[in-house]
Amino acid sequence: MAFxxxxxxxxxxxWGLIEDRTGMPKWxxxxxxxxxxxxxxxxxxxxxxxxxxQILTGMLLLLYYQPTVNPTFTSCxxxxxxxxxxxxxxxxxxxxxxxxxxxxxxxxxxxxGAYAMIFLAFVHFFRGYYMGVYKRPRxxxxxxxxxxxxxxxxxxxxxxxxxxTQLSFNATQVGLVLALRLPYAGxxxxxxxxxxxxxxxxxxxxFAAHVVLIPLALGALLYAHIALFESHGIAxxxxxxxxxxxxxxxxxxxxxxxxxxxxxxxxxxxxxxxxGILFGLAALWPWDLPTYVGxxxxxxxxxxxxxxxxxxxxxxxxxxxxxxxxxGASNVVLVYVLLLPLLDRSKATHPRDRPLFIYLATxxxxxxxxxxxxxxxxxxxxxxxxxxxxxxxxxxAVNAIVVALFHYRYRISYRRRLAAREAAGRxxxxxxxxxxxxxxxxxxxxxxxxxxLRD
Length: 455
Ligand code: HEM
Hints:
By secondary structure, this protein is mostly helical. It has helices spanning 2-22, 24-27, 43-61, 88-99, 103-131, 139-161, 166-180, 185-194, 199-232, 250-254, 259-284, 307-317, 323-343, 355-377, 385-424, 447-450, and strands at 32-33, 256-257.
């Protein structure tokens, strides 16, 4: 007990000293409502954590990795004088895994960390979509976020080639064919990606994009994303009242928690758990390096991308779907995501009040999962129209029925509640205009949200 008191006092004193000497509270982000101490409110912070993890592990990998297609002098596990010597990029990866202490652990955590970052970015995206956080005034946050998601996928695409395995080389070739088919952008990015057309030109450019260009762009956009978040504040929970956008209640507005150290420590706690899980998984299931590009002894390597691009590869396997059609379809999805804040202009934020948009999002998730599993099970196998219809039609039809039923049930219950409220002749207290916050340290709710009549 005495020790605990002493410990807390000392910690407070040290923290006070740090705050005083660094002026840290001034660079802290704004305080947030106490009820946001739930993982669902900080999914973006988890993506940011995973980005930091990738930078740290990636910088260590750079100490060993050689971005060259030329054979190196070390034998890298193959007999000396082999007819098809391994390229330097593959050889340095092999060396890292087999000869550097903890090298396999480092490389595997970077790989699993990439999967986790992409997965978390999708979770953050769909959470925002379902909760309607893209609505006014957060349209720009949404658009910047969409670009961040694209760049995250770009990190995955460019990183895949770096170990220079035959598998990753084949998949990158297919990815490049698709990228070059992009209308307008294709001819522009073609020379940028391919360089002088040699294998070394391609590897050098993928390397530059993966370690410098995309991380810089990601960092700059992330800065803008967080600045927008800071100026709008965290999105209030979705309103179940279709007549009004939800605002914080008076009580919620009063109970704010400072960013430093509380929220920062909360996020750090999750970051440590994240790193622990990644190290645990990497220790249990270290990555096995597939064979290198040009290994004459390894014929018939299948062409398969990492899981997050499998859906696109499978789409090209559909009968009648050419690369142009596949690229066109993915562009339609991209434009839809970017323009979503302009397409869904209603005030309603609750998922039950946006049946059409919820239906489209659910179709998208299900399509993505189905195609990923399908692509993993039958890579490169052509799919004929009856098989396509057999899987997709029931999926979309059941989806439509479920969303319509939920919406219908909800409308009935809402009408009942509204009638009861009118009969009682009073407004629900939670939606009454919020009074001005008492404490000057608590920021006022964003101007858009403070005015119920804005739109
Ligand atoms: C590399 C990818 C991304 C990172 C690192 C990132 C990071 C963040 C962070 C740190 C926040 C603050 C709140 C929170 O932690 O959730 C945030 C909020 C937000 N993000 Fe992202 N984000 C990314 C991708 C996206 C995507 C793909 C979208 C949607 C297209 C998006 C839309 C938003 C919106 C609308 C907010 C405000 C949400 C609110 O106020 O509750 N972000 N993001």
